[in-house]
User: Fold this.
Amino acid sequence: MTTRTTTTTTTATTTAAVLACAALLTAPTALADALQACGTYAEDRSTSRDETLSRTQTWLDSRVRYSQRTCHENEHGSYRTDCSGYVSLAWGLDRSRPTSGLAEVSREIPREELMPGDALNSAGHVALFVRWEDQARTRPVVREHTGPDGEPVVERSWSPETAAGYTPIRYDKIAG
Assistant:
């Protein structure tokens, strides 16, 4: 019973985040107006898989709250506190990119090749892949920043149905 409730809640929360991001993506000027500009850096950094998990753990520990209109700054830089800002932090990108902008710095990979620090991306939401929960590799454990505003970053398992709606991607400058 608990698993079904968790899966339903996870699916509903993820669906709400996707719909909120998708609404912004339909109007380019609305996206530009709504997304907060945060820090900018000289270039996208090279990173390791361990470093991506370490960087994102800092936001989990600090319980950074979701918002597309605020930034969070720590020793890893200043990034927007939404799903794509979180992945931008993880990868050490030169700025907080929108979900659609992650294609500029990553490439699609086969699902069976997912490794910690890769991401699962859809038209309106992205989450960082941490590990597989099951040996069949159907239930990914992800770290993600979803709405509504004020919700903290979470680490959770996705159902196979939720995961099937996402494309696995790998950052071009990740090592290991």
Q: What stands out?
A: Confidence is low (pLDDT under 50) at residues 1-34. Strands lie at 47-48, 71-74, 77-80, 106-108, 119-121, 126-132, 140-144, 154-157, 167-171, 174-175. The two ends are 39 Å apart (CA to CA). The chain has one domain: 2-175.
